[in-house]
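Example record used in the benchmark description.
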Amino acid sequence: MKTKFSLFSIVAVLFVAAGCGNADMEKRIANLERRVNQLETQGVVRPAQQPANTVANPETTLASNAAFKWEQTLYNFGTIKQGEVVNYTFKFTNSGTEDLQISSATASCGCTVPSWPRTAIPPGGKGEIVVRYDSKGKTGQQSPVITVVANTTPRQTRLSLRGLVQVVSE
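Model output (structure tokens):
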């Protein structure tokens, strides 16, 4: 019944979003409704659901109990002059129950260089990812992204810088 209600809710939201008179959207909704009915009549059960009385085998579980708790994941450096360098430190705590190990931190462009702790952060421990953004040769709105890969779920976390680089005329 929960599946029927959830899928029906999705279909209803799509119908409301479509508005009247959109034939293409109405066809899509009709197809979704038909598929929901097929799934219900076949008695399909979601494979991700596990009965409440079973216990997962810890040796086969891939998920880690390490977790980031970030002070913030977006830093707006405002407006800077072309050629200026911005340094920012993203701070985090390991809010999990296992050591947190960062395997990499990469930036979306060469103008941004992250550095991260190479040693494990214990549960409750604090860490930092220091980011250096060089605006040399950049103009306009900038939004570099730093992708952090660690033994967390999900494995990747994205940190962002935002700001405006202005050319200074001499």
